[in-house]
């Protein structure tokens, strides 16, 4: 009982508190209007004392001129619209065929809708349909007159007739048929469906399909045909693409090239290539790869049982079964080359290892899934007859252990190229020196190779070398150049790039009294001094400089065909003037790369053109002093720093 009485007492006290709170809130609400009434006059008084400000932006000179001369731009626009409407009505009146009987039966409705009725006079409709259509037009006119656009321009209209004319003009614009609707032909008056390709008539309106053909035939007789290029090389964009690809040729294309391009366009119709020469088949394969046409469907064109050479320049669309099919079909395969061979895996190479082939050359590109044990099995089985091994982009495979096997497993190896390899180190480079039969050697490694390892390799394998290519060797120094001079006696191609330690004195010593005959291809790009704070200062003569360039041209200029001194920026203008003077001629030089050499200008290029009568292409990217050089006929100057970007086939005699 005591608990119940306590609960009742608590409930009564809570109800009393709630009643008190409600009474207080009511009193506050009653006082609010009075307070608002007290402050309202003050706010109104303050509002009346505020000044209204008009903010406007700047006006143009034309607006000021029109205002001073009392000319209204809106009135000018309205009069122009009125003239257009009058012209449209006159054309409709000439083309329309008025039916006097229907106008008399229509009565007063024609007085209001005569202008809009003209385009529809050729319709076959009953009296009820006509009245219904005219009623809809009246409703449309009323809706247009109530629009904001019409009301905005209404104040510039003189009378009600002008208002009706402008409203009918706006209605005629809205009544133009859209694709999918029916309309009458402007010439033959036939009913047809309007499409997005419907042509306009000579006097307005749309034409049906037959009348459109007739009009197109009439215009086609007098139309001028597009002018074709006289050179036979295609558009300017295509020509520039060919120049940058190195496939540009001056003059017309030969018959073989035209036939190959025709075959590429109609590859679906080709069954076989027949007994074509290997050179022509190679051109076809190159063009197919360039246009992404080489696939499992077109691969049989290049693989026959009697095929001895297979060259795949883009194997991205081929799978492991396609590569195995090549080795299954050919019975006497001797030369194999595959670029972008992503799916050339261990099982494919193992299948090739088991075939009874006398493989003489093996060129693989992008097969980074081949493991070192598989390479070992392949060299053990097929290495005795191999004369050339070229491996590109194998990442962390084909390392020092494989290079150490080459002297043992490939006794007749003449060509070796390891490009973009991440595993070969100094030990592998030294192992190459044990291959005494090499005539062509090319390295492009990701590890920094020491000068001692390079010198050891050159002294061991350089006696018979005809090609020596060392790409991106930043640590190579004059010791390497000395090893080349003392060992190599048959070089025809020399490439050493991106060296930061070779000096101009070392190049002078190399090309002075060298027992090696004149070299045909030399590439010494980016052998220069690197200094970010003072790039023009080179007190130690690092890289290929003026004296080294003079010695190079004196030694090999007579037979030099291709010279690349890209970014050898410390060669001065005096050196170019001494080399390319009026007394010295370089008849075999056909391609010259002198980009990013600061002192090359129009005068230097003029001397080059005079001293090199058979020069075909000169690259001058980054030579900002080249302004307006005259390019002789048949020459190509690439990279001119102007809006054109390159000069193609000069016209100067």
TrEMBL record:
<dbReference type="InterPro" id="IPR006553">
    <property type="entry name" value="Leu-rich_rpt_Cys-con_subtyp"/>
</dbReference>
<dbReference type="InterPro" id="IPR056451">
    <property type="entry name" value="Znf_Tbcl_Rhp7"/>
</dbReference>
<protein>
    <submittedName>
        <fullName>DNA repair protein rhp7</fullName>
    </submittedName>
</protein>
<feature type="region of interest" description="Disordered">
    <location>
        <begin position="218"/>
        <end position="243"/>
    </location>
</feature>
<dbReference type="GO" id="GO:0031146">
    <property type="term" value="P:SCF-dependent proteasomal ubiquitin-dependent protein catabolic process"/>
</dbReference>
<dbReference type="GO" id="GO:0019005">
    <property type="term" value="C:SCF ubiquitin ligase complex"/>
</dbReference>
<feature type="domain" description="DNA repair protein rhp7 treble clef">
    <location>
        <begin position="179"/>
        <end position="216"/>
    </location>
</feature>
<feature type="compositionally biased region" description="Low complexity">
    <location>
        <begin position="13"/>
        <end position="46"/>
    </location>
</feature>
<feature type="region of interest" description="Disordered">
    <location>
        <begin position="1"/>
        <end position="48"/>
    </location>
</feature>
<feature type="compositionally biased region" description="Polar residues">
    <location>
        <begin position="230"/>
        <end position="243"/>
    </location>
</feature>
<feature type="region of interest" description="Disordered">
    <location>
        <begin position="85"/>
        <end position="137"/>
    </location>
</feature>
<feature type="compositionally biased region" description="Acidic residues">
    <location>
        <begin position="97"/>
        <end position="106"/>
    </location>
</feature>
<dbReference type="Pfam" id="PF23550">
    <property type="entry name" value="zf_Tbcl_Rhp7"/>
</dbReference>
<dbReference type="InterPro" id="IPR032675">
    <property type="entry name" value="LRR_dom_sf"/>
</dbReference>
<feature type="compositionally biased region" description="Basic and acidic residues">
    <location>
        <begin position="120"/>
        <end position="130"/>
    </location>
</feature>
């Amino acid at each position: 009982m005591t608990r119940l009485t306590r609960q009742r007492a608590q409930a009564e006290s809570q109800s009393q508190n709630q009643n008190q709170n409600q009474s207080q809130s009511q009193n506050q609400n009653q006082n609010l209007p009075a307070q608002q009434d007290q402050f309202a006059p003050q706010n109104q008084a303050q509002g009346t004392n505020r000044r209204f400000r008009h903010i406007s932006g700047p006006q143009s000179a034309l607006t000021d001129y029109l205002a001073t001369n009392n000319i209204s731009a809106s009135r000018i626009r309205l009069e122009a619209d009125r003239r257009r409407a009058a012209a449209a009505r006159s054309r409709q009146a000439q083309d329309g065929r008025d039916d006097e009987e229907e106008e008399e039966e229509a009565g007063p409705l024609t007085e209001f809708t005569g202008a809009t009725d003209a385009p529809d006079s050729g319709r076959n409709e009953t009296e009820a349909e006509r009245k219904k259509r005219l009623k809809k037009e009246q409703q449309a006119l009323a809706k247009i007159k109530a629009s904001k656009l019409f009301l905005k321009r209404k104040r510039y209209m003189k009378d009600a007739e002008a208002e009706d004319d402008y409203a009918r003009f706006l209605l005629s614009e809205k009544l133009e048929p859209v694709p999918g609707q029916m309309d009458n032909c402007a010439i033959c008056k036939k009913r047809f469906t309007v499409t997005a390709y419907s042509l306009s008539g000579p006097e307005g309106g749309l034409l049906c399909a037959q009348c459109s053909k007739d009009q197109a035939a009439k215009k086609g007789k007098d139309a001028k045909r597009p002018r074709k290029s006289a050179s036979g090389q295609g558009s300017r964009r295509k020509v520039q693409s060919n120049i940058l690809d190195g496939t540009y040729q001056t003059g017309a294309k030969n018959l073989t090239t035209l036939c190959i391009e025709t075959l590429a366009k109609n590859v679906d119709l080709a069954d076989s290539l027949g007994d074509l020469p290997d050179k022509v088949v190679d051109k076809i394969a190159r063009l197919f790869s360039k246009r992404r046409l080489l696939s499992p469907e077109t691969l049989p064109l290049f693989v026959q049982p009697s095929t001895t050479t297979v060259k795949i320049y883009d194997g991205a669309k081929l799978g492991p079964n396609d590569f195995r099919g090549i080795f299954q079909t050919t019975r006497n395969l001797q030369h194999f080359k595959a670029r972008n061979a992503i799916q050339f895996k261990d099982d494919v190479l193992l299948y090739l290892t088991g075939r009874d082939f006398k493989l003489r050359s093996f060129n693989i590109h992008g097969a980074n899934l081949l493991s070192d044990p598989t390479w070992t099995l392949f060299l053990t089985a097929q290495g005795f007859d191999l004369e050339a091994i070229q491996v590109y982009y194998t990442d962390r495979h084909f390392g020092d252990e494989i290079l150490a096997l080459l002297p043992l497993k490939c006794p007749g190896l003449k060509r070796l190229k390891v490009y973009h390899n991440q595993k070969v180190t100094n030990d592998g480079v030294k192992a190459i020196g044990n291959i005494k039969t090499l005539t062509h050697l090319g390295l492009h490694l990701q590890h920094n190779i020491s000068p001692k390892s390079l010198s050891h390799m050159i002294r061991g394998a350089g006696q018979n070398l005809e090609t020596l290519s060392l790409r991106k060797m930043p640590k190579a120094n004059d010791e390497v150049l000395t090893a080349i001079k003392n060992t190599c006696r048959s070089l025809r191609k020399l490439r050493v790039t991106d060296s930061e330690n070779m000096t101009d004195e070392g190049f002078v010593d190399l090309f002075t009294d060298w027992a090696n005959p004149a070299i045909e291809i030399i590439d010494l790009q980016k052998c220069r001094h690197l200094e970010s704070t003072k790039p023009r200062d080179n007190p130690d003569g690092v890289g290929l400089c003026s004296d080294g360039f003079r010695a190079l041209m004196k030694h090999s200029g007579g037979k030099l065909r291709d010279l690349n001194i890209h970014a050898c920026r410390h060669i001065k203008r005096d050196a170019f003037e001494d080399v390319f003077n009026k007394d010295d001629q370089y008849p075999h030089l056909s391609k010259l790369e002198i980009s990013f050499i600061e002192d090359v200008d129009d005068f230097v290029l003029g001397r080059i053109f005079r001293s090199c009568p058979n020069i075909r292409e000169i690259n001058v990217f980054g030579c900002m002093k080249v302004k307006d050089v005259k390019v002789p006929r048949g020459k190509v100057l690439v990279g001119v720093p102007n809006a054109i970007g390159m000069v193609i086939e000069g016209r100067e005699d």
